[in-house]
Write a structure and sequence with these properties.
Radius of gyration: 29 Å
Shape: rod-shaped
CATH topology of the largest domain: Mlu1-box Binding Protein, DNA-binding Domain
Strand order of the largest sheet: 1-2-4-3
Number of strands: 4
Number of domains: 2
Strand content: 5-15%
Helix content: 55-70%
CATH architecture of the largest domain: Roll
Structural class: alpha+beta
Order of helices and strands: HEEHHEHEHHH
Number of helices: 7
Largest sheet: 4 strands, antiparallel
CATH class of the largest domain: Alpha Beta
Distance between the termini: 88 Å
């Protein structure tokens, strides 16, 4: 599976990058209910910072903002669970199949790639702000000089020749 496809299945909810249960089920090649049953049997390894259920408001917002996978994969009776990077790692040990382990490795790599990109863009943004400040000062100086020269040309001879004070 391509890294780009995996990254498109990672959303940000409550300030955390997460994946939806039915997207994970598709990647692990199991039914969503099978994945959720495995999680319910092992709730002790899925604390709230690894997995949580989204609210109706969050689900409505996500559905309106993102191009979601087919809604027929999502049972209408309950809201999806979402898994953080650590929750995805725990899923591979919960599902215990070779496919689950391989898929988890790919998903964790996708999370890591997203973190690296975020760090790069943060550093890049800081550098751009520093350059912007530097160049704004230089442009201010140039504009001030241009304005002075423009005003100098419009000054009258009398304004230019001032009376000398003193000796």
């Amino acid at each position: 599976m391509e890294m780009e496809i995996l990254q498109q299945k990672i959303y940000e909810i409550r300030g955390q990058r997460v994946m939806l249960d039915y997207d994970l089920a598709e990647l692990y090649e199991v039914e969503t209910r099978v994945l959720n049953q495995a999680v319910k049997r092992n709730l002790d390894v899925f604390p709230l910072d690894f997995m949580f259920q989204i609210t109706l408001d969050e689900w409505t917002f996500m559905s309106s903002q993102y191009v979601m996978t087919s809604s027929n994969k999502r049972p209408k009776s309950y809201l999806p669970s979402v898994f953080t990077e650590h929750g995805v790692a725990m899923l591979s040990s919960t599902l215990k199949s070779k496919k689950a382990r391989q898929t988890s490795i790919l998903i964790v790599r996708a999370f890591i790639k997203l973190k690296e990109m975020a760090l790069f863009y943060t550093d890049f943004s800081i550098q751009l702000k520093q350059l912007e400040t530097q160049y704004n000062k230089q442009f201010d100086d140039v504009f001030e000089a241009i304005n002075y020269l423009m005003k100098k040309d419009t000054l009258t001879k009398q304004q230019i020749e001032r009376k000398k004070i003193g000796f």
